[in-house]
Each structure stands twice: as structure tokens, then as C-alpha cells.
Recover the amino acids of this structure.
């Protein structure tokens, strides 16, 4: 059999998630060498190991081989299984790190995925669960992944470094995806947000809201920022606060920005007003990059998700207009090429005479006609 | 006799006469003029019953919806691939004759021997690939998967044969292609009636198998060994107009019916080891879905495509034309395996033309050419070997050159050499000759030859020139003569250009070049990368051309020659896919142009730089710059981009010498240049950034470019950015590094329009639309009051209104006309409303259909304007293209035992379809298969593209979802089957055959079904009964032993249900200490020591991981249908004469029944007491022992007494005898007496009866009389 012949090889731990996710979807084994080989502390970190364990939980028949030092990883994917799963994520990275990959895999399981993830819900490096809930879920709905059981719920909030948050994610299973044509983002009609605070004074959230509104009110009146103060067992193990903002356009595009306080014991303490103001500015920045003039239809965190789902569609043309491509997305495109032999037609829309906003990129591709091989035919 | 010949009178059904008659008839009936019965007599059509009406409505709706198919996106390409027509039938039914006749019908050409597929142009928009299918089941299975249309030949004189039904069943499983039956041998019937009957019988049988009304064609008889022209013509017409429904498997997978095969293996390798793995190239039309390079395909066995390229269509459809039919030149035929086809010079071999279809007018001339081609095909030495032995004379007086001469000089890559492609050619030229000149001269020569050849072909003069040509071409040229001189020249140019490449250091792709050369050194030449590289170059050129185009608009008159070259460049890019950017530099004026171009680039570059230098204090930053800065600040990845950009700039800067001369241009073209630069920076760079560097990355990993010290140690030089890039943080967030100051008004203004509160575009601004609306619908009439409100009449945009305006002006004078106009308008509005309203009622189905249609349109339109080379990159090779596929590591038997009669099908595999796992299916033994199937017997499946042998397990699903193993398949029921094998998408049909070798007397298809589920583990279980025996019994509790071996095992089954054979249920409680494995169990009743306790458990079974592809194509010619894989145990036993040792317990023995011994009945005392005396057991108390004194002494008689006793005995015997006799006598007497008495009684009764009768009669008479008198009484009295 030619199964062993077409495995792919990479070096370095960067983009580990992409590689493993694409490997799982394409069924091609992947070998990753030199994982932090020259580091003082070589090999896989805890959060990566936890991610691999998660993959093992949701698949059936995967083969994972890691050498003694953890610098080489061989992953032969099995079939996506799904079902009810619980997973304790590492507190080094937030749940968003795991959830991003799960969003890519969840629609292609054998049984609908119902997973409980425990760990850090909001931190400063990864997209938080709030943002993913507000932006990624509507994006998946565009591809026809919808239904009653499609939900992402934050049961408990946990801030770094202690963690203790809990998230419930469930996603229905689809056999095929719809192609999309997202080229007109529309105009922003409302801004919603979530100011959360755990194990600090509930007043913090209100202060964040006020400061954020002070900036955003200049643009649009339809702003509502919810405050979410979780108490007791729902508040995790560490104190912290933060804000995530989402701007929704008339055509159902969502742009997001978020900011969280420094974890306890790291860095200087930040004022909630600063968090609110800076987050609002980040949102404006995002709007500037993605929406100014012709506009992109998917925000920066979900670019790769949108591109992946376009690739996995039927053999039809899908189009999406994006803002400037993030380095993560660029690498993702390369990986898509090596795993699926798919190349995107990239047309740059230069930004008008006034030279405003970031470059817009029109990405076009023909889906590979992916069908969910795991789903059982009744 | 005369009357018989006369025609019958026919009534007129139409025309004035009939009309008149009808009218008269209606008048006769006094119905008036009304034709429509519904109007004439509305009462007759009134609703009689609401229920019945509802029912009929339902029924019509049901029928309507039944017609719906789930709409699918129409993905058929604009130029579809030829339709595969499979001509199938049992032997000696006339398949080859039919194919020959069809080909002759379409092309006016007669093929003597047909091997493999034949492609012909059958009409303006349709091509056919006709292939014959014998009755080898391997071929039948393969062809059923690719067929679009099946011509099923049936020998009418014989009737249906098993092959026909087998093939029908195979078709059914693999998606049902169109099937048309063709009855042959109809001339063998003597009587017309019999013929008619047979036709009818066959037709109806055919209909039950295919569908009622399926087309069955009759070929009545042969004329000169051929079918009748008219009938063949009709059949051809049927084929050409036939419509097809897309089949799921075929539309979702790319596949190729191979019509040509070449061996590309290095002859040296073959010489050293004849059994070495081969490298082959296969040709054919791509069908189904898009094929991606490097994807997996299934030939027999899975292979990765090492390279794909598309070729000019050898059997192209005619150009667009208005004519009704094709002319002779357009009726092409292409069948390389049979030795027919256009001239084709390509990478692998040379094909010599036969002069096209019109060259075949002088029929028998075809023979020698055939032979020539035949010799080319059937040659056993490969083309490379032939090339090695061939000799070329370059100049008239020089000694002939062999390939070894050339090899010795320039060849440093034996592996490359066997590929015989451009690369080696290029290298060789460089080494030996004064390269380019010779090459170009050479090609010029060829060019001339080519032209003359074209002429000569037209004149159909001689072949030797072509042969010479062929020899010359052996030196690895690639072009195609059939397409004419123009194309060929282009391709030559391309070659030249590629040779010239290194001379131009300024080309902006030296990066790619170097990488390409590295690849070449690595000796795993991947032309895909090359393609992408050239692609990139071409893109740059295009963008340049675009930029130039905009500039040309400004300065076209100034620089006419430039525009000319530009046009040329565009022409070349559009014309041939292989053209690269370097073409633009090929000629002198072109290079001049390029220099001017680059100066522009440089200028704008400078501008860019200066702009960058402006400090960021002024916060109004150009968007582009911002984007750039953002990118700059991204650490790792974007460095690549920058580096690349820089290198790109440097490249551009190179030819600055000429810039002075063209300075006057600057001002004119500055603006254009700016736009151009932006374009340039964005498009190709982004593409290059994303896809161009991928190859680099890989190379970095693979390359061993590290220095060696002392041959032992290596200096490790970590690639700087590579390292920290490789191990940096894996995060998808895109951080903003240089945020704006959002407090500033200008910055805020920059995004204000992104909100709904901001300014909208012209066509969407609410206020504006409102204003427009007012203009449009300004006039309105208040219907209640009758007032007419008039709006200001402004300039109208709509055409209708303009028309109306004009009308208004004309008819202004009269009031009436205004009114009329008003009415008209109203009517129009109403119509519009109606139309809209009707459309609004569109069903879900219509919406879905519309959506699909829209998607199909988008699919077609998206890549339409791009040339093939670019399209191939984005969407893969699209169906309809003629492609060449290279595959490596093919077993040598594939080449050695190649038989063109056996079709080779390359089936593309989807993602992870190349993996193996457990496949679960729903399976049913075929109702015509004689045996049942046994679990764990190897069987051959045909699933997806594959045919393979595997070991399935059959199971059935219990009500609780448990999958229980079955030993055999059920007779007339579906069951499940699981095997270990290649993963195939759910819903795919499959069939199973027990063996593919030889001819079996019975129906060969053993089972059919559908794939249900794919998994990496299985849950099939079989029943396992554990038995134990009680060793101690309390009331309802017992201690059981012998079921388990340890307390641990018991612990696992605590609480499990157990049962005795007699049916007492119980439960395992807890393990006991004493005998190991014993446990306490409680039951619903007390056990007996003789009871056997058992527990039902389920034991998972494992499936043998056996997957063996059917490699029938590798068998030697003539033995292809003898493939046999693993044998079943039954077959093995039979072969080796091993008798199965039966289990002793299973043997039948004579039944020995023991005598049943019943215990005496014991009735409890209490019960006895309650019984009535009658039923009480009458047990006398046992006489106690009689004491001795009471014991009576025995009597001893005297002889005399004994005599007396004997006498008394005798007397009593006599007496008793007498008494017995007397008793019998008495009994008889009594009987007689009884009889006599009975008789007497009867007589008495009879007498009495008579008496009574008499009495009653008298009494009755008396009564009647009385009655009469009483009735008459009063009347008599009145009388």
C-alpha cells in the first residue's frame, strides 16, 4: 500500500496545531522533527502534550509516537470519533488554543462532539472563548454547520495562572459543507461586548464598560457591553478581569478585539480603565484593517478557519474577502497546499485612492470535495 | 381481390372540412359554438365530492414531486471529455463488428483491428470513446465503473446469456449508466412470427432488468459482414443525442481511461535488472472531477502521481461553426493502442499520422501505415533503447552520431536522461556544442521540415520524410505537428528561452532558477515546482503587462514598437501554457522594453523609500504603508517577505544604464508606474510569499549544505530565521504592533464610514434612494377622493418611463390619451406586481435549484478568463483535458505483460481514501448465487475503483445494537459485513465475487451491498457461554464453581445474570475464598446439585488484516483471467485431500434409552388424613411376627386324605365347568328372550301409532268441518 509513502515531514514546533489538524483531516501522517531541539528545555511543552492527548481522545485509531526527549513527533491520524469527551487543558495556554483546532475538526466527527474543556478561559496570548463564541460560531453557520446542539458555553471562568475555568462545546456533524461567497462585509451596525471580572471587585467590570463606551460612542450609538462577574466556584482560581468586544456588520460579519489584565504575579497591575480604552482602540484598529473601504469578511483570528472550511467544501468555487493576512494564515495556506494540493487564487484589492485601511485580499478556491468519512450511514 | 387492395377510407381529423363537420355535429347536439366542454357545460365539471377532489389533488402533487431529483450543481466542463461507450456482450455476438461499423459510420474510416479504446468525433459537441468489453469479469467490473453508455449486445437467436445479467448487476452496483440493448443475429429467424415473439420476449425481460421502456435496438442482419448502414446510422444518431445523468462516484472522483502507455524507465536499469520497477507515462482524457498533481490514484494498486501535464487534444472538437454537419477533416479518430491517431511528438514517443480520416479514402493504403505504427507499439525494446541504437547524421558528410556519443560527453545525470525531457536536452547542448546557435538552427531546420511535412501530409506523398523527422525528433523535442506550424514555433521559442535563461542574470526569478537547479542536483526533478516557478514568473510578466497596458494608454503613440512587443507578449502568454516571462526578453527590442520597465520600477521604488523615511509624526499614514509596517513588525514570517521584496527590488534595479535615455518618460508615466508598483507589490508577491517559499522551506530541511571539517565533523549552521521561526509561539492572533492614535480626528474619520451611521455609497445611501423613489413614484392617486397628486417630473432613469415621457409629449393634446396612458401604466404596474407575486410563491425546490444554478455559473465563470496553466494550479486538471500522467515504481509485469485489449483505468482517490481501516457494509447474498457465503472465507470485493481480495466477517445487528457474528450469510436477508481494507466513502456500492478466474457455469456475482461505516476498530462479538456447577446449595443461594479461574475474574462479573439449564435465573454475588474462582450466587429458586449453571457473555472477534489487490493486469498476456488469490479452507482441503476431523460430540450415535424407573408415590400423612376413606391408601398394619407358640404347625396329610382331596378338587372343577356352561346357556337364552321381547314391543308400538294416526285423522276432519261451519255460519244465516 502506498499509505506510508505520502507522509509529510516538518521541523520545529511552530504551527503544530495546524499540522496535526490538517493531518487528521487529510489522513496523511505527519512527522515533526527538531521540536525545540536547541532549546535549554527541549521537546514538547505541557500544553502541546495536552493538545496531542486531546486529539487522541477525539480520534479513533491514531498512532502517536514521541521520542524520548520529545523532540520528534510522529502522528498517524485515525478517524475522528467525537462523542462526549472531557479534557483538562494545560494552564500554560488558554482554552482558546485548543478550541480553535476543535472548531476545525468538530463538524467532521462520527458522533456529534460534546466536550468539556477545563483550564484558562481568557488570557493574553490566545483568542479567548468569548471571542471565539462571538466570531467563529457565526462563521461556521455560514458554512451550513448549524442546529440546536451547536453551542459554546462558558460554565466557569478561569484566569491565568491558576485556571479553573470550564467550557462546554457541542457541535453537530455534517457530511458536506456549503460553499460561501463572502465578498461584501456591509457596515457595522452594532457593537457588543463582554466585560468580565473574577475574584476582584464587581465594580471593575463597570469601570471597563464605561471607559470602552467613552471611545466607541463616538462612532455608533448601538453599543451594549455585558458585565459578567462570576462568583464562588464559577470564578476559577486566580483573579483577573478583561474585555472582549465584537462589532457586527449588516451582512453578518463579526470583528473582534479583546484585552485581559495581567495575570496575578506577572507584570504590573493594570487599571480597568486602561483595559477598556485599549480594547476599544484595538477594535477600531481591527475595523480599520478589515473593514475600511471594501472590507474583509472574516476577522484576523478566524481567517484560517474560513480558509480551511472553504477548502473542505464541495467542488465549487468559494470566495472570501480578507484583510491583511496574518503570518499564521500565510503558513496555513502553505500547509493547505502541501496537505490538500489546494492553491488559493489570491487577488489583492488595493485600497483606493485615499490609501486607507489595510490591503484586502480576495481569496478564491475550488473545494476538494471533502466528505465526512467518519459519519455513519444509517 | 379488388376490394382487398382498396384503401380504407380515412376520416379527416383536421382541416376546414373536419372543422365544418365538427361544428355541424355540435349544432346537431344543440350545444352552440362553444368548443370547450368545460365552458359549454359547467355543471358537468362542478365539484361532486370534496374528498375525491382533495384526493386527486394529492395524487397529482405526489406524482409531481416524485419527478423531482435532488438538484446537484452541474459541474460538467464546457468542453466535456468524450463519452465512454462500452460495447458489451458474450463472445461471438458481434461486438467488434458493431464497433467497426460505428467508427465507419462516424468517420468514414475502416479500422482493421481494434485494440483498446477508440476516440472519435461524433458531432459538433460530442466525442465518443468506444471500447469493447469481453466477458472476463475483471474487465466487466472495470468498465462498468467508467461507462457512460453501455451497448449491451444480445444474440437474439440464443437469448440472454449469463454475462449480460452479470454485467447489468455490476452496473447497478457501481451507479447505473445508460444502458441500451442491441439485438443481433436477427437474420437467423426463418419465420416472422417467431421473430416477433422473440423480440417481444427479450424486450420485456430486458425491461424488467433495466427499466420499463428501456431502449432496445434491433440489428436485423448482416450485409457483406457488416450491419446495415441505415441501422448503424440510426444507432449512431441515438448515441449522439443521448442525455446522461451524473453518477455520484464518477462525478466526485477524477478518472482516466488510458488510451496510451509508454515506458520511461532507463534502459540501463532494465538491462541490468529486467525485473526492476518501471516508470511509466499514461495518457488519456481526464473525466469526472478535477485531478490534482501529486494526488493518489488507483491503477491496479495505489500509486502517487509523480507528475501530470496536459497535452493538446489529439481528437479535438471542431472549432465553433455555424454549419450543420462536420466536414471530413473534422471527423477525427484517435486510438493509439490500435495504431490510429494524429501525429504526436511528445516526451515519450513518436506517433506517425495516417493522414487523418480523409486519408483513408483509398481504403487499403492504410495497411502499411498501420504496420509502421504497429511496429512502434509492439516493439519490445523501449523507445529509449531504440533511441540509443539510432544514429543521426547532422551534416551530410559527417559520420552518424549515436546516442552513446552524446551521452559520453554531457551526461552527468543518468536518471534525468531517461526522462528525455527539456532539462537534459538543455544540459547536453551546453556541454557539447556552441549551444544556442546550433539549437536554434536545428529547430529552424525542423521548422522548415515541419512545414514541408505539413504539405507533404496534405499531398499524402511519402513517409520517409516523416521518418527522418522522427529520428531528428528523437533528440527529445516536444511539439505537436497536428496543430500546425504556429503552435510549434511557439513551443520552440519556449525551449530556446529556457536554454537562454542563465544568460539573463537580471531576470527576477534567479531565485527560482537556483532552486530549480538545486532540485536538478537532487535528481528528483519535480516539474510541479518548476511549473509553479514559471507560473510565478509569468504572473509577474502579466502584471507588468497590465501595468504597461495602463501606461500604454498614455504613451502608446510615443512608443509604438513597445506596444507591439507587449501585444506579442500577451499573445504568447495566452497561447501556450509553457511560455515564461523570459520570452519577453528574447529579442532585442524586448530587452530594451524591459529595461525601461525596470527603470520605472526603480523610480517608484525610490519614491517608496523616500516616503518611508518620512517620520511618522504626521499621523495620516497611507494605508499601504501601514499594511507594510504591520508586516514589517511581524517578526519571523514576514521577514521572508521583506527579504524577498528586497531581492525583488534589487533585481529591478539592475539595468539602470539605459534609464537616462528614457528619462523623459518619467513624468508621463509616474502615475501609472505607481499604480503598477502597487499592483506588482501586492499580487505576485503575496502569491510568491505564500506559495513560493514553501519549496524553499522544505529544501532547507533536506539540504546538507553544511560544511565538513576533516571529513568527520560538520559545522552546524542553524539557519537563522528558520530556527526561531520553527520554534516560535504557535498563536493565531494577529497583533497590532503600531496602533493609531484613535483620539485624533483624522484617524477617527478614516473609519467613520465603516459604520451604519457613516456615509454610504451612492447606490445605498438611504436619503438618496428615498429621493430617487420620490422621483420614480412621484405621481399617485388618492383613490378615495379621486385627487391626482403630481410630483415634480425630474429626469427619469428608467427606460420605460422615458418611453412614456415621449408618449406623453406626443399625446399631450388630448385628454383621452392621457387617461389611456394612465390606464396603461396601471396595467403595467399590475402586471409587474403579479409577476413578482407569482415568483414569490417559488417553492423550496425552486430556490434550491436556483442556488445550484448560480453556483454552477460561478464555477464556470471564475477561472474562465485564465489560461490553462494558471487554472491547473488553482483548480487542478479539469475534466475534458487530455493528460499525461507519470507514475513511478510500477511493477515490471505491468509493462512486460501489457495487453491493449485490457483497459487500464486510473481512478483518482480522495483524501484518506488511500488509508486502510475497517469497512462496514450492508450486504446481501445475490439471489441468483447458488451458495451461501461463509465468514472468514476470502472473497473478492469491487469497491470504489478497487478490486481486491479480503476476508470479511458477517454479522447481524441485534435489537440492542450489538453486532453478532454470523457463520454464514442469511439466505434471503441483508446482513452486515466487515473487512479490513481501503477506506471508501459511505454510500458506495460494492459487489463480491468468489473468484475472478476462469469461467464458471453459474452466476458469478456472490453478493452486493453498500458501504455504511468506516472505522479503525470493530465491535463484532460472538457468543461465549461460561458454565459452572453448584457445589453447595442453601435455600436460594448456591456456591458455584468451575466458571472462573480466579477471584479477579469473578469480580469483573459481579452482578452478572446467570441461568441454569432448567431455566432458574440468578445473579453472581461475590467471589468465595476457598476454591479459586468459585462464587456465591443467588437464584429465584433452589437449585439441584445436578443443575448446570451458565452465563452468556460476548467475546470480541478480530478480523484478519488481509488486503490483496487483484493484480490481473500483471498476468501474462492470455492468462489475464486466471488470477487467483488466497484460497478458501474448503478449496485447500479439497486440493490436498484433507478430511475434516469432526468433533466427536457432533457425531450421531444410536439412541440408547434407559428404562425409566419411577419411585413409588408418597403421600404425606396430613394429606392422607384429609382424604376420604375410599381414596385412603389401604395399608394394613403389617402382621407382626407371630410368636412360635401361636404358629400353627404344618399339616401333613395321609395318602388316603390326599386321595380324597384330589377327588374333591376334580369334582369341584367339573362342577365349576358345568356352572360356566350353564351360565353361557342362560346368557344366550336371555338374549333371545330380549330380542323376542323387543320385537313384540315394536309391533305394539306400530299398532299404537297406526291407531293414533287414525284417531288424529278423524279428529282433524272433524275440526275442519267445524271450522268451515263456523266461517260459513253468519253468511248462511244471512242467506
Amino acid at each position: 500500500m502506498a499509505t506510508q509513502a505520502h507522509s509529510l515531514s516538518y521541523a520545529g514546533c511552530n504551527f503544530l496545531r495546524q499540522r496535526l489538524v490538517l493531518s487528521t483531516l487529510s489522513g496523511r501522517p505527519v512527522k515533526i522533527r527538531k521540536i525545540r531541539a536547541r532549546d535549554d528545555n527541549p521537546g514538547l511543552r505541557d500544553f502541546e502534550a495536552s493538545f496531542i492527548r486531546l486529539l487522541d481522545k477525539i480520534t479513533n485509531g491514531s498512532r502517536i509516537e514521541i521520542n524520548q526527549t520529545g523532540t520528534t513527533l510522529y502522528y498517524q491520524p485515525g478517524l475522528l470519533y467525537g462523542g462526549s469527551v472531557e479534557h483538562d487543558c494545560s494552564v500554560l495556554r488558554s482554552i482558546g488554543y485548543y478550541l480553535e483546532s476543535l472548531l476545525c475538526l468538530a463538524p467532521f466527527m462520527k458522533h456529534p462532539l460534546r466536550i468539556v474543556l477545563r483550564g484558562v478561559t481568557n488570557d493574553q496570548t490566545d483568542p479567548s472563548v468569548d471571542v471565539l463564541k462571538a466570531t467563529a460560531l457565526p462563521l461556521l453557520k455560514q458554512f451550513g454547520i448549524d442546529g440546536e446542539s451547536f453551542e459554546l458555553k462558558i460554565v466557569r471562568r478561569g484566569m491565568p495562572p491558576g485556571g479553573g475555568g470550564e467550557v462546554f462545546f457541542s457541535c453537530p456533524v455534517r457530511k458536506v459543507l456549503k460553499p460561501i461567497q463572502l465578498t461584501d462585509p456591509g457596515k457595522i451596525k452594532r457593537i457588543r461586548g463582554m466585560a468580565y471580572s473574577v475574584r476582584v471587585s464587581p465594580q471593575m467590570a463597570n469601570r471597563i464598560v464605561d471607559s470602552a463606551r467613552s471611545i466607541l460612542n463616538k462612532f455608533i450609538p448601538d453599543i451594549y457591553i455585558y458585565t459578567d462577574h462570576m462568583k464562588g466556584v464559577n470564578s476559577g482560581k486566580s483573579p483577573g478581569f478583561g474585555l472582549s468586544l465584537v462589532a457586527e456588520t449588516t451582512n453578518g460579519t463579526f470583528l473582534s478585539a479583546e484585552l485581559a489584565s495581567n495575570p496575578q504575579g506577572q507584570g504590573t497591575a493594570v487599571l480597568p480603565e486602561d483595559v477598556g480604552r485599549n480594547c476599544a482602540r484595538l477594535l477600531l484598529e481591527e475595523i480599520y484593517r478589515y473593514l475600511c473601504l471594501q472590507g474583509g469578511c472574516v476577522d484576523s483570528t478566524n481567517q484560517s478557519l474560513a480558509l480551511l472550511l472553504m477548502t473542505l467544501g464541495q467542488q465549487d468555487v468559494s470566495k472570501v474577502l480578507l484583510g491583511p493576512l496574518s503570518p499564521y494564515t500565510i503558513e496555513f495556506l502553505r500547509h493547505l497546499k502541501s496537505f490538500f494540493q489546494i492553491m488559493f487564487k489570491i487577488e489583492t484589492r488595493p485600497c483606493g485612492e485615499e490609501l486607507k485601511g489595510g490591503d484586502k485580499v480576495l481569496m478564491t478556491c475550488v473545494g476538494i470535495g471533502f466528505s465526512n468519512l467518519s459519519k455513519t450511514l444509517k | 381481390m379488388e376490394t382487398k387492395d382498396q384503401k380504407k377510407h380515412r376520416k379527416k381529423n383536421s382541416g376546414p372540412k373536419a372543422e365544418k363537420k365538427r361544428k355541424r355535429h355540435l349544432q346537431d347536439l344543440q350545444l352552440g359554438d362553444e368548443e370547450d366542454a368545460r365552458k359549454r357545460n359547467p355543471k358537468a365539471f362542478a365539484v361532486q365530492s370534496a374528498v375525491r377532489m382533495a384526493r386527486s389533488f394529492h395524487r397529482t402533487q405526489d406524482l409531481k414531486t416524485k419527478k423531482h431529483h435532488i438538484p446537484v450543481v452541474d459541474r460538467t466542463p464546457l468542453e466535456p471529455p468524450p463519452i465512454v461507450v462500452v460495447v458489451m456482450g458474450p463472445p461471438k455476438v458481434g461486438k467488434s463488428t458493431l464497433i467497426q461499423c460505428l467508427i465507419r459510420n462516424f468517420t468514414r474510416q475502416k479500422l482493421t483491428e481494434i485494440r483498446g479504446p477508440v476516440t472519435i468525433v461524433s458531432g459538433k459537441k460530442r466525442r465518443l470513446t468506444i471500447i469493447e468489453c469481453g466477458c472476463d469479469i475483471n474487465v466487466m467490473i472495470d468498465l462498468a465503473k467508467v461507462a457512460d453508455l453501455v451497448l449491451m449486445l444480445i444474440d437474439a437467436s440464443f437469448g440472454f446469456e449469463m454475462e449480460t445479467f452479470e454485467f447489468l448487476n455490476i452496473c447497478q452496483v457501481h451507479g447505473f449508466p445508460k444502458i441500451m440493448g442491441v439485438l443481433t443475429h436477427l437474420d437467423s429467424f426463418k419465420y416472422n412470427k417467431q421473430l416477433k415473439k422473440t423480440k417481444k420476449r427479450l424486450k420485456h425481460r430486458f425491461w424488467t432488468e433495466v427499466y420499463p421502456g428501456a431502449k432496445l435496438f434491433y440489428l436485423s442482419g448482416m450485409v457483406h459482414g457488416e450491419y446495415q448502414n441505415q441501422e448503424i446510422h440510426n444507432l449512431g444518431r441515438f448515441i449522439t443525442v443521448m442525455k446522461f445523468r451524473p453518477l455520484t462516484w464518477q462525478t466526485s472522483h477524477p478518472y482516466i481511461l488510458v488510451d496510451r502507455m509508454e515506458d520511461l524507465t532507463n534502459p540501463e536499469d532494465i538491462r541490468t535488472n529486467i525485473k526492476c520497477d518501471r516508470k511509466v507515462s499514461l495518457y488519456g482524457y481526464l473525466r469526472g472531477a478535477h485531478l490534482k498533481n501529486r494526488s493518489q490514484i488507483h491503477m491496479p494498486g495505489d500509486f502517487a502521481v509523480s507528475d501530470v501535464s496536459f497535452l493538446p487534444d489529439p481528437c479535438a472538437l471542431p472549432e465553433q461553426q455555424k454549419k450543420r454537419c462536420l466536414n471530413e477533416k473534422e471527423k477525427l479518430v484517435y486510438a493509439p493502442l490500435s495504431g490510429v491517431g494524429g501525429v504526436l511528438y511528445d516526451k515519450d514517443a513518436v506517433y506517425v499520422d495516417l493522414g487523418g480520416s480523409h486519408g483513408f479514402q483509398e481504403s487499403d493504403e492504410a495497411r502499411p501505415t498501420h504496420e509502421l505504427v504497429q511496429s512502434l507499439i509492439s516493439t519490445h525494446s523501449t523507445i529509449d533503447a531504440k533511441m540509443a541504437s539510432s544514429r543521426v547524421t547532422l551534416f551530410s558528410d559527417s559520420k552518424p552520431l549515436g546516442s552513446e556519443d552524446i551521452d559520453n560527453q554531457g551526461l552527468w545525470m543518468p536518471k534525468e536522461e531517461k526522462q528525455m525531457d527539456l532539462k537534459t536536452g538543455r544540459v547536453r547542448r551546453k556541454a557539447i556544442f556552441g549551444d544556442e546557435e546550433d539549437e536554434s538552427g536545428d529547430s529552424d531546420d525542423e521548422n522548415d521540415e515541419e512545414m514541408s511535412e505539413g504539405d507533404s501530409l496534405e499531398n499524402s506523398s511519402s513517409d520517409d520524410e516523416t521518418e527522418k523527422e522522427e529520428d531528428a525528433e528523437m533528440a527529445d523535442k516536444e511539439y505537436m505537428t497536428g496543430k500546425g506550424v504556429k503552435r510549434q514555433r511557439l513551443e520552440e521559442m519556449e525551449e530556446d528561452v529556457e536554454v537562454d535563461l542563465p544568460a539573463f542574470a537580471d531576470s527576477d526569478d534567479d531565485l527560482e532558477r537556483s532552486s530549480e537547479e538545486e532540485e536538478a542536483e537532487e535528481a528528483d526533478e519535480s516539474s510541479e515546482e518548476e511549473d509553479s516557478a514559471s507560473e510565478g514568473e509569468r504572473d509577474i510578466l502579466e502584471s507588468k503587462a497590465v501595468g504597461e497596458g495602463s501606461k500604454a494608454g498614455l504613451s502608446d503613440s510615443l512608443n509604438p514598437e513597445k506596444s507591439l512587443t507587449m501585444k506579442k507578449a500577451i499573445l504568447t502568454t495566452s497561447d501556450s501554457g509553457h511560455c515564461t516571462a523570459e520570452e519577453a526578453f528574447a529579442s532585442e527590442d524586448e530587452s530594451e522594453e524591459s529595461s525601461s520597465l525596470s527603470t520605472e520600477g526603480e523610480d517608484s521604488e525610490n519614491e517608496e523609500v523616500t516616503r518611508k523615511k518620512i517620520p511618522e509624526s504626521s499621523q495620516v499614514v497611507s494605508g499601504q504603508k501601514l499594511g507594510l509596517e504591520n508586516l514589517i513588525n511581524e517578526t519571523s514570517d514576514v521577514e521572508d517577505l521583506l527579504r524577498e521584496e528586497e531581492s525583488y527590488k534589487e533585481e529591478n534595479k539592475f539595468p539602470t544604464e539605459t534609464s537616462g535615455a528614457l528619462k523623459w518618460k518619467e513624468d508621463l508615466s509616474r502615475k501609472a508606474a505607481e499604480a503598477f508598483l502597487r499592483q506588482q507589490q501586492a499580487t505576485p508577491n503575496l502569491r510568491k510569499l505564500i506559495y513560493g517559499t514553501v519549496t524553499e522551506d522544505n529544501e532547507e530541511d533536506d539540504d546538507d549544505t553544511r560544511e565538513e571539517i576533516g571529513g568527520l565533523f560538520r559545522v552546524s549552521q542553524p539557519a537563522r530565521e528558520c530556527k526561531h521561526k520553527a520554534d516560535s509561539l504557535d498563536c493565531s492572533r494577529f497583533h497590532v504592533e503600531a496602533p493609531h492614535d484613535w483620539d485624533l480626528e483624522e484617524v477617527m474619520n478614516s473609519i467613520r464610514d465603516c459604520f451604519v451611521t457613516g456615509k454610504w455609497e451612492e447606490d445605498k445611501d438611504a436619503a438618496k434612494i428615498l429621493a430617487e423613489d420620490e422621483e420614480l413614484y412621484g405621481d399617485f392617486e388618492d383613490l378615495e377622493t379621486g385627487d391626482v397628486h403630481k410630483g415634480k417630473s425630474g429626469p427619469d432613469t428608467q427606460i420605460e418611463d422615458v418611453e412614456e415621457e415621449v408618449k406623453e409629449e406626443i399625446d399631450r393634446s388630448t385628454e383621452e390619451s392621457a387617461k389611456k396612458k394612465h390606464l396603461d401604466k396601471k396595467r403595467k404596474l399590475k402586471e409587474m406586481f403579479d409577476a413578482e407575486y407569482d415568483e414569490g410563491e417559488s417553492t423550496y425546490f425552486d430556490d434550491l435549484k436556483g442556488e445550484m444554478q448560480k453556483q454552477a455559473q460561478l464555477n464556470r465563470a471564475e477561472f474562465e478568463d485564465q489560461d490553462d496553466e494558471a487554472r491547473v494550479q488553482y483548480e487542478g486538471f479539469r475534466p475534458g483535458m487530455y493528460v499525461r500522467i507519470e507514475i513511478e515504481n510500477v511493477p515490471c509485469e505491468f509493462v512486460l505483460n501489457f495487453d491493449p485489449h485490457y483497459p487500464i483505468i486510473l481512478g483518482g482517490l480522495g483524501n484518506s481514501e488511500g488509508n486502510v481501516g475497517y469497512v462496514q457494509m450492508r450486504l446481501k447474498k445475490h439471489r441468483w448465487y447458488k451458495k451461501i457465503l461463509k465468514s472468514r472465507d476470502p472473497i473478492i470485493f469491487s469497491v470504489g475503483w478497487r478490486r481486491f481480495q479480503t476476508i470479511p466477517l458477517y454479522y447481524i445487528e441485534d435489537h440492542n445494537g450489538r453486532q453478532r457474528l454470523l457463520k454464514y450469510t442469511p439466505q434471503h436477508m441483508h446482513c452486515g459485513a466487515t473487512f479490513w481494507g481501503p477506506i471508501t466513502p459511505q454510500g458506495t456500492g460494492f459487489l463480491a465475487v468468489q473468484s475472478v478466474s476462469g469461467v464458471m457455469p453459474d452466476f458469478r456475482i456472490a453478493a452486493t451491498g453498500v458501504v455504511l461505516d468506516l472505522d479503525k476498530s470493530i465491535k463484532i462479538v460472538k457468543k461465549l457461554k461460561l458454565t459452572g456447577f453448584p457445589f453447595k446449595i442453601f435455600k436460594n443461594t448456591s456456591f458455584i464453581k468451575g466458571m472462573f479461574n480466579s477471584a479477579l475474574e469473578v469480580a469483573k462479573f459481579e452482578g452478572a445474570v446467570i441461568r441454569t439449564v432448567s431455566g432458574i435465573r440468578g445473579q453472581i454475588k461475590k467471589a468465595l475464598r476457598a476454591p479459586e474462582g468459585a462464587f456465591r450466587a443467588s437464584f429465584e429458586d433452589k437449585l439441584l446439585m445436578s443443575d448446570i449453571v451458565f452465563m452468556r457473555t460476548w467475546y470480541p472477534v478480530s478480523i484478519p488484516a488481509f488486503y490483496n489487490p487483484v493484480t490481473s493486469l500483471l498476468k501474462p498476456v492470455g492468462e489475464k483471467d486466471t488470477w487467483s488469490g488466497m484460497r478458501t479452507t474448503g478449496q485447500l482441503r479439497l486440493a490436498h485431500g484433507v478430511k475434516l476431523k469432526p468433533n466427536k460430540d457432533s457425531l450421531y450415535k444410536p439412541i440408547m434409552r434407559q428404562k425409566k424407573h419411577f419411585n413409588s408415590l408418597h403421600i404425606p400423612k396430613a394429606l392422607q388424613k384429609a382424604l376420604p376413606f375410599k381414596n385412603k391408601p389401604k395399608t394394613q398394619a403389617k402382621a407382626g411376627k407371630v410368636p412360635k407358640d401361636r404358629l400353627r404347625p404344618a399339616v401333613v396329610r395321609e395318602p388316603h386324605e390326599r386321595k380324597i382331596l384330589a377327588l374333591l378338587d376334580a369334582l369341584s372343577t367339573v362342577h365349576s365347568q358345568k356352572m360356566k356352561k350353564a351360565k353361557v346357556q342362560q346368557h344366550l337364552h336371555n338374549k333371545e328372550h330380549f330380542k323376542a321381547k323387543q320385537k313384540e314391543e315394536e309391533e305394539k308400538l306400530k299398532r299404537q301409532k297406526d291407531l293414533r294416526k287414525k284417531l288424529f285423522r278423524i279428529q282433524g276432519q272433524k275440526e275442519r268441518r267445524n271450522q268451515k261451519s263456523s266461517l260459513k255460519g253468519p253468511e248462511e244465516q244471512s242467506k
Notes: The longest helix of chain B spans residues 1199-1278. The first strand of chain B starts at residue 83 and ends at 88. Chain B touches chain A through 99 residues (CB under 8 Å). Chain B has 39 helices and 39 strands.
